[in-house]
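Hi R.,

As promised on Friday, here is the backbone we talked about, encoded as structure tokens. Could you run it through your design pipeline when you get a chance and send me back a sequence?
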């Protein structure tokens, strides 16, 4: 008789492998990404701070040269890309028309920057600064510089000034919306058309803000409300409505304005232009209504 114990078959125990934690892997990957982003951010910040004084000097020199009508020296500070699309004569003609923006330049200081580096493309330095003029006025400058042969060159630049400074200047025509990036794509004859309020030239402007400011100016000059419909930004569209309303002295256009302060200013302007006290009654704000009446009475 066989012993029951002899029937027991022995076998090697199964070894179960402990599964690796997916969550741990994900956390490691996220940690590496965060570390890389932090390193890159720190590097670009370091580069921005390190290169800042050099870039600031280049922008200052450019502004000073244009203010002094030293266009050759200013042109030498521009990038090869800009010079390939714009001759010196075109460059000189453009900046000769921007007297209010550059004349009387005194100084400028950096207010912000951003370094842009993409694989296979040159390094870009996006610069912003505050301008001081000799008469006490202030303006803002935005510029993009590109590194060429270890030297920062102006690729685009835009100076923004107050409407008061622009209107007080001796410039003939309205060109406050012209930017060098837009001018790169325009010919000499187009610059004349801008000053003659040719809507087709507005369409050629690449920057949306510049393009829509151009539309508003042309709409006012032509007293053509339909041009305002080409403007997407609501704030600028409201301004366009007001400009046309003032040009046509048409209160019904003011009613199309969605922004209440802009609408109030529209009513006030037309009331003063027409010297009509009854228009002041359309202003809901008591202080502005009183201002409207006193402006006409005086």
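Update: got your reply. Pasting your designed sequence below so it's all in one thread:
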């Amino acid at each position: 008789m066989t012993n029951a114990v002899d029937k027991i078959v022995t076998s090697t125990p199964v070894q179960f492998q402990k599964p690796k934690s997916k969550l741990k892997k994900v956390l490691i990957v996220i940690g590496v990404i965060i570390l890389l982003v932090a390193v890159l951010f720190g590097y670009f910040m370091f580069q921005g701070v390190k290169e800042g004084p050099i870039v600031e000097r280049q922008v200052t020199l450019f502004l000073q040269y244009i203010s002094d009508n030293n266009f050759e020296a200013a042109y030498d500070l521009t990038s090869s890309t800009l010079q390939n699309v714009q001759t010196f004569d075109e460059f000189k003609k453009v900046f000769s028309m921007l007297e209010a923006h550059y004349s009387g330049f005194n100084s400028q200081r950096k207010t912000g920057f951003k370094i842009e580096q993409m694989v296979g493309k040159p390094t870009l330095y996006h610069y912003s600064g505050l301008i001081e003029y000799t008469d006490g006025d202030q303006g803002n400058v935005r510029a993009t510089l590109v590194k060429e042969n270890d030297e920062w060159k102006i690729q685009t630049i835009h100076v923004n000034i107050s409407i008061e400074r622009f209107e007080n200047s001796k410039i003939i025509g309205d060109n406050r919306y012209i930017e060098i990036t837009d001018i790169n794509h325009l010919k000499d004859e187009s610059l004349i058309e801008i000053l003659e309020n040719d809507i087709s030239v507005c369409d050629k402007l690449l920057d949306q803000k510049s393009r829509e400011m151009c539309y508003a100016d042309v709409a006012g000059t032509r007293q053509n409300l339909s041009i305002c419909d080409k403007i997407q930004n609501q704030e600028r569209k409201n301004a366009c409505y007001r400009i046309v309303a003032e040009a046509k002295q048409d209160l019904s256009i003011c009613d199309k304005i969605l922004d209440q302060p802009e609408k109030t200013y529209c009513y006030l302007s037309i009331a003063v232009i027409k010297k009509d006290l009854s228009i002041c009654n359309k202003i809901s704000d008591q202080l502005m209504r009183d201002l409207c009446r006193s402006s006409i009475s005086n």
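One thing I noticed while checking it: The beta strands are 105-116, 124-133, 138-148, 151-160.

Thanks again,
M.
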